[in-house]
Amino acid sequence: MDERCSALEQEEAWKENEISKAARGIRYYQVDSAASIKRVICTQCNQSNPVTDVDLENLSLDCSECDTTLDLTDPDRIVTVSTKNHPEVAQMQYLHQLQQRQRELAMAHQGTPLQPQSTAYAQQLEALMTRPLPSSLSNLVAAAAAAPYPPRTGPPTP
Fold this sequence. Notes:
By secondary structure, the chain is of the alpha+beta class. It has a domain at 23-115. It is built from five helices and five strands. The chain has helices at residues 2-23, 53-58, 87-109, 119-130, 135-146; strands at residues 36-41, 48-50, 60-62, 69-71, 78-82. A hairpin with a 6-residue loop joins strand 3 and strand 4 (69-71). Residues 26-34 have low confidence and may be disordered.
């Protein structure tokens, strides 16, 4: 009986902790660490920003939208989201990287020297580019490849 009470107390404490996190706006998902990314939500513009190992070492991150410096000393601020269960997150990450690349190209065009990227960032990018497609996308690509193409016709003759 005593063990059952202890288990119920632990469950109640866990629920209270989750409710407290939800009240503070912290959102967590159950994730597989191999298929997840860490993100932090900006307190100013509510933009979701990817967190890299370098950011975790520096314990700070600049928001991609409003350039607010975000403090990463509180681990509860960092949200881990599964790209497997939430493909839109992977799409957001891709768009964020695309925006960052466009900014780098614009800076290079203006003659501003680029800041060197860390090896961890390069490894992370390489891992993203070489990982296999999710099964839903693989099936879609396979179906598109197997579909017969309609015959090409020339321009209409008058």
